[in-house]
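Incident review: delayed structure delivery

Summary: a single-chain prediction request sat in the queue longer than the usual turnaround. Root cause was a stuck worker, restarted by the on-call engineer. No data loss occurred. The affected request and its eventual output are reproduced below so the record is complete for anyone auditing the incident later.

Affected input:
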Amino acid sequence: MQALVDGVKNGIVGTIKGAGEIVDTVADTVSGSLSNALKGTGNVGVALTEAVTDVTTGAIQGVSQMGGDLGRAAKGAVIGVLQGTKDVGANALDATGSTAERLISTTAEVGASLTEGAAQTIEGAIEGAKRVGVNAIDAVTVASAGAVKGLGGVGKVTTTTASEVARGIVEGAAHVGGDLGAAAKGTLLGVVRGVKDLGTAGVEMIGTTAGTLVTTTAKVGGNLGVTAKGAVEGAIAGAKEIGVDTAAAASAAANGALKAAGSVSTTAVDEIRRTLTGTIAGVKVVLKEPFTQTA
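Output delivered after worker restart:
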């Protein structure tokens, strides 16, 4: 409701004027506001989603009004939501996914950097999970999936935007020591949810996003095999969820990852080929060759 949005926004505006630390200010304001909003609601379903959406919206509006860093606001919002849900016994993972979805949709709407927004969202999910004792791998998975879903909510889920978000997810996870396999899995899960079918455009988006995950992992010095396998696992999980061909989804992700590895090194190609050859999550993965390889 608007009162909750305005309350969070005004609280942040007043506090930032006096303190200036965006992450902590947003986290504290969101946490307290969410806890109060959820008391007596049952903390589940629509009540949880609506409350999370409202406090997240208020936080972004407040920081935006002050001309603050929206990426830092995103990080603080996720931390605050995790703390707030813990305080009242609500489902922290459901709330994390909803928060990431709202944050990225807002980022897309205002034309801010999707890569930076996604990176800070994932950092917030990891840091918040550690603070409240939630499984960080699960938090990264649901936050990554929610972030990509957020693009679909505002009609901006394209191959380009999905890749921008994927890049940020890996960068954010790597920056705070998060699990890149979980980040990749959540990203592809969100992509498959967003494309709804496996026509030409859907296959291209899955493959390109998996490729972006691999090239970004290479840049941050992560394990390419772990990322590639996570991407395939996410594609399979998403395909099962929406009732489309799991083999086609797995193949699209695997071949996108392998093709991208060709721009990294022959070692990268060999590593990903070894990792993805065979059966993953009960699905036979079919790799297509050859790909141009960089020495």
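Verification: The mean pLDDT is 89.
Action items: add queue-age alerting; document worker restart procedure.
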